Amino acid sequence: MKPQTFSHTTVLLRESIDGLDIKPKGIYVDCTLGGGGHSQWICESLDESGILVGIDQDDFALEYAKNRLAAFACQRHFVKSNFASLAKVLKGLHLFGIDGILYDLGVSSFQLDDDTRGFSYHNDGPLDMRMNQSADLTAEMVVNDYAPGELKKILFLYGEEKFASQIVKSIVKARTLKRITTTLELSEIVKNAYPPKERFKEKHPSRKTFQAIRLEVNGELKILEDALNQGLEALKPGGRMCVITFHSLEDRVVKQLFKDKANPCTCPADFPQCVCGKLPVVKLISRKPMVPGADELEENRRSRSAKLRIVEKLGTES
Length: 318
Hints:
Rossmann fold, globular, single chain, seven-stranded mixed sheet, 14% strand, DNA polymerase, domain 1, transferase, 318 residues, 13 helices
């Protein structure tokens, strides 16, 4: 059954709110609303003319956030959508010149803890993994219907799984006998495909496989760079963008995009001055990502892989 309470610990909360540098009358977009943890702090900093836009694919999260933020004075818009449609969402709301945009990527704690969503390799549930439960593609379809070559590619690219070949062989063998339909079935198959000496290390053998399948089901990496570009386009000069990632693939996309936007010059390094004419679009607020401190790590183990990167929009275009 779906949990009746929303359990989610907001990661890098103070750092991201400080990073947004919130103006009381500004317009702010939480592209991954979840339960509204970040948005609550944004709303607390806005007055009655300030605007919050909360975007999420999950009906349960949207309803919970609406109730959580109901008492605040600021104007609030809640939209069921994917952050890949950010430009369309803002156009539909007739909002332009955004002051701050936040992306908190990955899976919410409440989704991980809800066995019926199929994100967890620790508990039994249906192989689902859809953030948007009205979407067509499920984890069960990926596991059972994808060709072996496709599965192997996904585990390599999205999971950086060095035992991808062995895992795919085990999955294919198992699914010829019966369709794989639950999380624990898949988790057991993956664990048994690992070399015995690798199975009982600190990190669970299924972690990378479940990550890879989740990314495939929700198309997260495919849409990330485009979504960030839409956000940068929507920001006004001086506006801030904060992005929290939870694994190296996401962080690599964000890091490279921000680097390219902060230094777009394509001139050879030995040129005495720039002649390409490409000007910086953003400035990096912190060159290295912010990470959780010891206290946060102790309170929330799931924050251990979180990284926060922040940029500020400049008044120039490349």
